[in-house]
Prior knowledge:
There is one protein chain. The chain is mainly beta. It is built from nine helices and 32 strands. The strands form seven sheets. The protein has a six-stranded antiparallel β-barrel with strand order 3-4-5-12-10-6. It has a six-stranded antiparallel barrel with strand order 13-14-15-20-17-16. A six-stranded antiparallel barrel has the order 21-22-23-26-25-24. The longest helix has 14 residues, at 559-572.
Amino acid sequence: PLQTPGSDEVLQWSSASCGIALCSKGPIASCGIFAVLHCRPQLCAMISPERCSCIVSASLVKEVKETSAAESQRDGSWGCSGLLLHPRRRLVLCHGQTFFPFLRRPKRNLGRRPFLLPGAFHSDLQIQVQFPGTSSSTQPELAMSLASNDTGALNSESEPPNLDCRPRLSSLTSGQAEAKRSSPAEMLMVFPCQEFGDIFRTLFSKSDKWYFYSEDKDQEVHGEPLDLVWFALLWCPGWVDGGSVCGEEALRYVRSESLSKGQPLFSCASPFASFCSEIFMNTLSQGIVSNLAGERNALILTDARCLPGTEGGGVYIRSQDLYYLAGLIVAPLCWKANDWVGLTLVCSITCILETMRRILNGFEIFGPPTLTAPGSHGLTRLLGTAALLESNRVWGSGVIVSPRLIITCRHVLDRAPSVRVKIQSDSNSCLALKGRVVFATKETSPYDVAVVELDEDLSSIEIPTIASDFKTGEDVYVIGYGVFGRACGPSVTAGILSAVITMEERPVMLQTTCAVHAGASGGPIFSTSSGELLGIVSSNARNNNGGATYPHLNFSLPITVLWPVLSAYNQTRDVAVFEGLNRGSKHLRALWRLQGSTSVPQRSKL
């Protein structure tokens, strides 16, 4: 909404039962026709994510004396990372959960509300936005005003409209102004992303015992999991330095439907929010797209390492030396039952902007995505080689090594004589087959291995190339059905081959830094550069004393141990060729039980 230069005519936002409609100043006629003019600036390259990131803090102007549990949560400052959604308009996008401690009344039927306006929050709420860098510039200001009618967001039983919470901007002017490193902000609205909320409810069931927000799963969890689907749009009326900090850049973003698993990405956010911002502000982290789910890929899972306080920070992909926003960080750390997941949950920026467009009755802050085809990469063809194996109530991963053979871990099969096999590639096509277990190692074997033979050939699946050697430090992928399991296909995590353990000059164990979770056992490890199959995941590590899991410390069986007997079986179909896997030295058994070879027996912590 813009103010016409040289005129008092101002476009206003007015809430209605179906959202927010834009209209000219004055009463809305019952049968009027309205037009909205949108002056869209020319898009330029967004050079650096650090220059478009910020920190958002929320607190009360005066101390609150109430003694109720709800009011006690308001004490102190709450913070998160944020994003300069539109520097010239001084619009900031951040995570909405930061503001829930300041609701005027306890959350009731929050999921039924399409959005919340300032009247829903405490009148003494103070919001500060900390921007990167300081300088001065000459920039035009933008005019907009919000109507005070909150009925579209609040029902008659909730808070009354707050007439004082109406951000109003002055007319278009130009002048010299000194930049502020920190600027007050006004809330425009807090809203849930519908597409993200739908897939969130599907994947994060209460029975799986998900915990968010804290690195310590025993620490009290603030808020409800569904608070994660809310975002906030802020306006900084006193900040006129958008151009000097971000230049004439406009935020560019990528269509989430075009993202694919394995795609490299970067996050830019501020760990611990406003705490020691001189040290932590706008920290970068690198990872890949681990999984995608929901309508238009509303939910993005990444293995980029993020910390508490980065909620609301941006996640970007890079194409031809330009950065494109892909989504906002929602939860940097989470636990599933007693297992630390160690991945980052992201909401698609495409879905967030579409939600804002619906609320604003079609008004678009930006035009269409500026990057709709980020390009392909070599991982796509490898996704179809990972299989989901289900037997009884147990499931896990496997890898196809010939048109009819799949190798996996013994513990995945749970002694079942047959299994159901599903193969889902990145195109979301799914093959369902049956297979019988032709071999599984004994409990006394040093190796945890099983071989499944399919009832029919897989002629459409590309068989991976088998590696013959290993290079410590090389980049690798792990593909498996961990984290979300059967819900949205295989997940991918990236890392390096951190160690190759040998015995008698033969590799007998591999270690990687990829995040590995329950359900990924039996999944393949691929070399990033060559695409060769290096081995299969056997397990991650758990501390027996504290119960903590270490997803980035995991152990895998080298393919060089398995390939000679697999080749022999392909030629002879004699299961006796696998019996060699049941034999192994005492030292090899101790190695795979993490017992070491010390003279004094020690109980392993892992």
